[in-house]
Amino acid sequence: MGHACPAGRSPAMTILTWALQLVAALIFLQTLFFKFTAAEESVDIFTKLGAEPWGRYASGVAELVAAVLLLIPGTVPIGAIIGLGVISGAIMSHLTILGISVKGDGGLLFALACAVFVCCAGVLVIRRGQIPVIGPRLVAPMSPNQGAKP
What we know:
Layout: H1 11-36, H2 40-48, H3 54-71, H4 76-98, H5 108-126, H6 135-138
């Protein structure tokens, strides 16, 4: 019997990958308002990083691209790779320059960055076979009897 799950994934894995994709995309999309409207917190962060305003705009565009790609089935792995790259920079900025808590947020921005990192990494693990260029080498080939039903 055929099922609607791509690449032979179980329905549970399909639901999990979509949940991870949606969480990462929604967090990225939610932060865009602050970056593109020059909200005080964003300006302060990128000033501390020595990247105001160009870094704020560039990271916003990269996050927008990652979010959109995470929501288009054929581009999910590329979106997750871009998202992982962008959010790794954010996490490193928190660990080296900004600190965990920024402007008294109690670590909320850092926690959201960590959540996006985990979501994008999880998507890449689940969809590893779809990663451009290297994906097919990351999944074990099926033996002739592996897909057979008893």
